Amino acid sequence: MDFNAYAPKRIFIGLVLGAVLLFSGLIYYVWHVGMNQDTELYRTIFTAIIVASLILMGFIGLVFGGMIITIVRSESFSVPLVQNLMRFTISYFFPLALQIGKILRIQKKHIMQSFIQVNNQMVLAKKIKVPAERILLLLPHCVQNADCKHKITRDINNCVMCGRCPVNQLMEIRDKHHVHLRVVTGGTLARQIVKSVRPKAIVAVACERDLVSGIIDSLPLPVLGVLNVRPNGPCFNTQVIFEEIEIAIEQLKQDVIWSEQDESEQKHKQKEHA
C-alpha cells in the first residue's frame, strides 16, 4: 500500500540514519573526552559508558538494517520478537527524527507521512492474515457532516444513510467485508474501543498527527494507516478515499467463503457491539 499522496519512505529512513550517525558522533566525543582525563577512575567510568553505548549502537544498527531489508524485500523476519523490536525501536526514534527534520527544514507533515509509509510497509511485510471479524476500522468523527444531528460516535448504526458524508459508504464497506467499524472523537475513546473490541489488526483513518500517535500507542498491534482528505481544512467535514480503505482491509483479511447464515450472524454481532 504505497500511495502517491504520501511522502516517500526515504525521508523517515534518512532521518533515522541521521539520528544514528549523530548518536555515533556523540559516543566518539565522550570517548575522546574520557581518554584525555588524568585519573584512572574517570577513564574506567568513560570506558564502561562507551562499551554500553557501543552495545546499544550495535543493537540499533541491527534494527535499522532489518528495517531496510524488510522494506526492500517486502518480507519481514519470521521471528515475531524481532518484528516487534524493530517497530518499537523505530517509534522511539520518531521524536528525534522530527527534531533533525526541523533543523533541515523538512515539513513535519512530510516526516509523519513518511513514518506512516514505513509503518505500513513493515506491517504488510509480516503478511499477517486475520479473520474479518478481528479487524477494526477506526474513523475520526470529522468524517461526519458537521450539521448532522445524529450522534454516531456511540453507535454507528444511528447513521440515517442520507449520503451527505462518507459514513454511509463506509458502513457499506463494513457490511461487505464483515469488519468492525467505529467512529471516535480522540485517542482516549480509540483506546477504549480497542480494549473492548480486541482486534488483531486495525485500519485507521485520520490526519498525520493522529495516525502517528495511534500507531505508536497501539504497538505491538499491527495498524495500517490511511490518511483522510481535508478539502475544508483540518477536522471539519473530512473525506476519505474508499479504495485505499478497501485495499488496506483486503491486505489484512483472511480469505473466507461466507454463507448467507454467516453473513446474517455477523451483522447481528455488529449491531450488538456497535
TrEMBL record:
<feature type="transmembrane region" description="Helical">
    <location>
        <begin position="45"/>
        <end position="72"/>
    </location>
</feature>
<dbReference type="Pfam" id="PF01976">
    <property type="entry name" value="DUF116"/>
</dbReference>
<feature type="transmembrane region" description="Helical">
    <location>
        <begin position="12"/>
        <end position="33"/>
    </location>
</feature>
<keyword id="KW-0472">Membrane</keyword>
<keyword id="KW-1133">Transmembrane helix</keyword>
<keyword id="KW-0812">Transmembrane</keyword>
<dbReference type="InterPro" id="IPR002829">
    <property type="entry name" value="DUF116"/>
</dbReference>
<protein>
    <recommendedName>
        <fullName>DUF116 domain-containing protein</fullName>
    </recommendedName>
</protein>
